[in-house]
């Protein structure tokens, strides 16, 4: 009897020690994550919320910066952010639920479900191809005039599909991957047609209510929504309010809002079969062309990265004033969710640093973005001074700034948006000099020349982009448009 009591006491003691050790380890990990994200908030305009769970348990959640800059209201884990394209995974779940009910077939054709859609292309495209971005339908957000001419207007679903989601096919359905907001807008229309309910009602009834996601929903600008973050964007000389966007336009491709806490509930539900039978759920996470499933990117983490060898199921989102990222490391049941209401910091780099901490590695040093500092110089002293400053910083402070090609491309895009074509050309020419083997750098410079009316230079740079990357669709489209003119 005594030995049995001793064994019980020893087991109890071991359990208590294990719990204390686990708590201490989680606390240490949490502090390291906080230190890392705080550095992004201090140097890189990160303003948002972060949640990290490890082995299904939340070990970190915190807000940084301001949910509303005018009123100086801080961000917190329960603040609601627009999700952008993370919406697509909810749309794909709703579609698969209708597949389970038999009202939608994955090999059924678009025209089978939307009688008003053009028959010549709608009869070729399957629901599966819409889900995995291989339909060939042009994405309405790729139209360079869409945001300036259309984005503030309200449209009924059918009218929008007919006008903006019914273009001539860019390729034979199923042969290529091209990320396509039009396809997911159409999926929302199909859901409404087969169910007789609005997309918003389906979302609420079939996902949000069953999972207790009370802080998530379809965003309407007019609604008084408690704890909703305002969206901001970086301009050349600072941060401004993001431009208005009518939320009928992103629709099933990007109109949801949520909190990092609610996305944790969503993550946990995806490990169970509460919403969908396991065989159909697996189709969501089966990679197709370019590692895209149905509403998710699925890829093994490269060996040299934190968590190397694990399968990561993820998606990002970007919409006026917001960018978001969700990464699920399904082997270890880890989750990283990052919401930002002042896009500027690289959420991918931030998540990579968090993964390093989770796997007991040292995250890469946080580097300051060039966009803000060089943008101020362009405004004050012109692009020549900004180019000179870039070269000086690279010579004297290589470790303090992020000198990848994305920074100069982003600055060039900002300049083009402001009509400062010559300044954009100067910055993007520098980018080509720095990254002569990058198709993206030549594509950006070609666009700047095209905007400035310098057609021969634009065509020449589009050709160079395609020599480096024959699959560069933006270069292909830009070249085609110029040659037609």
What's the structural blueprint in terms of helices and strands?
Blueprint: H1 2-43, E1 48-54, E2 57-64, E3 66-68, E4 73-74, E5 81-82, H2 87-101, H3 110-113, H4 119-122, H5 127-131, H6 146-149, H7 157-164, H8 181-195, H9 199-211, E6 217-218, E7 232-235, E8 238-241, E9 256-258, H10 260-269, H11 278-284, E10 297-300, E11 311-319, E12 322-329, E13 334-340, H12 347-358, H13 370-381, H14 383-396, H15 405-417, H16 421-434, H17 439-451, H18 455-468, H19 473-484
Antiparallel strand pairs: 1-2, 1-13, 3-4, 5-9, 6-9, 7-8, 10-11, 11-12, 12-13
Helix pairs in contact: 1-12, 2-8, 2-9, 7-8, 13-14, 13-15, 14-16, 15-16, 15-17, 16-17, 17-18, 17-19, 18-19
CATH homology-level superfamily of the largest domain: DD-peptidase/beta-lactamase superfamily
Q: How does CATH name the architecture of the largest domain? A: 3-Layer(aba) Sandwich
Mean pLDDT: 93
What proportion strand?
Answer: 5-15%
Largest sheet: 6 strands, antiparallel
Which radius of gyration do the C-alpha atoms yield? 24 Å
CATH fold category name of the largest domain: Beta-lactamase
Q: Report the end-to-end length measured between terminal Cα atoms.
A: 94 Å
Shape: globular
According to CATH, what is the class of the largest domain? Alpha Beta
User: What's the tally of helices?
Assistant: 19
Low-confidence stretches: none
- Helix residue percentage: 40-55%
Please list the strands of the largest sheet in the order they lie side by side. 2-1-13-12-11-10
How many extended strands? Answer: 13
Oligomer: single chain
Structural class: alpha+beta
Count of the separate structural domains: 2
């Amino acid at each position: 009897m005594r030995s049995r009591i001793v064994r019980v006491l020893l087991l109890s003691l071991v359990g208590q020690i294990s719990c204390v050790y686990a708590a201490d380890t989680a606390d240490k990990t949490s502090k390291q994550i906080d230190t890392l994200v705080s550095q992004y908030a201090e140097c890189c305009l990160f303003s948002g919320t972060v949640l990290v769970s490890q082995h299904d348990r939340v070990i970190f959640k915190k807000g940084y910066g301001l949910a509303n800059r005018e009123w100086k209201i801080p961000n917190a884990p329960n603040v609601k952010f627009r999700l952008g394209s993370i919406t697509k995974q909810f749309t794909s779940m709703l579609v698969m639920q209708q597949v389970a009910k038999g009202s939608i077939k994955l090999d059924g054709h678009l025209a089978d479900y939307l009688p008003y859609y053009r028959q010549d292309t709608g009869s070729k495209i399957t629901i599966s191809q819409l889900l995995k971005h291989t339909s060939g339908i042009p994405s309405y957000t790729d139209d360079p005039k869409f945001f300036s001419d259309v984005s503030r207007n309200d449209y009924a679903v059918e009218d929008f599909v007919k006008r903006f989601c019914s273009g001539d096919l860019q390729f034979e359905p199923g042969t290529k991957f091209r990320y396509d907001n039009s396809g997911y807008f159409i999926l929302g229309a199909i859901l409404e047609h087969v169910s007789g309910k609005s997309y918003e009602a389906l979302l609420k009834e079939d996902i949000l209510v069953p999972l207790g996601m009370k802080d998530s929903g379809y965003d309407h600008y007019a609604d008084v929504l408690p704890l909703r973050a305002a969206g901001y964007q970086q301009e050349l000389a600072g941060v401004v309010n993001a431009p208005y966007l009518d939320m009928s336009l992103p629709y099933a491709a990007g109109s949801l809002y949520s909190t990092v806490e609610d996305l944790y509930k969503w993550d946990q539900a995806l490990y169970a079969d509460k919403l969908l039978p396991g065989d159909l759920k697996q189709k969501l996470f089966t990679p197709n062309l370019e590692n895209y499933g149905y509403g998710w990117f699925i890829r093994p983490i490269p060996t040299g990265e934190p968590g190397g060898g694990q399968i990561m199921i993820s998606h990002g989102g970007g919409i006026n004033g917001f960018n978001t990222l969700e990464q699920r490391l399904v082997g270890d049941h880890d989750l990283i969710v990052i919401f930002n209401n002042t896009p500027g910091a690289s959420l991918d780099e931030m998540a990579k640093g968090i993964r390093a901490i989770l796997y007991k590695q040292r995250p890469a040093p946080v580097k300051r973005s060039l966009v803000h500092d060089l943008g101020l110089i362009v405004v004050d002293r012109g692009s020549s001074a900004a180019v000179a400053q870039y070269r000086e910083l690279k010579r004297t402070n290589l470790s303090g700034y992020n000198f990848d090609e994305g920074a100069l491309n982003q600055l060039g895009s900002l300049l083009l948006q402001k009509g400062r074509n010559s300044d954009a050309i100067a910055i993007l020419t520098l980018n080509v000099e720095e990254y002569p083997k990058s198709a993206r750098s030549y594509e950006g410079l070609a666009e700047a020349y095209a905007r400035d009316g310098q057609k021969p230079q634009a065509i020449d740079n589009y050709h160079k982009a395609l020599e480096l990357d024959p699959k560069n669709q933006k270069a292909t489209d830009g070249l085609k448009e110029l040659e037609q003119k």
